[in-house]
Amino acid sequence: LFEIMGIPVILAWDVPLTGWLRWVSLLALVFWFADIFMSFTTGFYFRGELEMRPSKIAARYLKSWFFPDVAVVLIDAISFVLAVQNSEPSVSGAALLRLSKMSRFLR
Length: 107
What we know:
Layout: H1 2-13, H2 20-39, E1 44-46, E2 49-51, H3 54-63, H4 66-85, H5 93-99
Antiparallel strand pairs: 1-2
Helix pairs in contact: 2-4, 4-5
């Protein structure tokens, strides 16, 4: 919910990441990092059978969403660090990087 409603507001009015907003953004970042690791343990159905072998799960995830997920989370991490370092409002590369987080919803 934060990423659907909060990110557009932050980008539109160039709100600095300070106080509670910084902690909510950090929590969202930690969540998406954990999601990458959890994807390595999430089974899938293949020909009507549930596949739970870790090697098969990892191979399928690496072939499908791993690299887009890592790219978005790394962009998110970089934008968070830049936004925390530049806590005063300004138009910067961090705003453009935060905008790229919206690509997560295309998945």
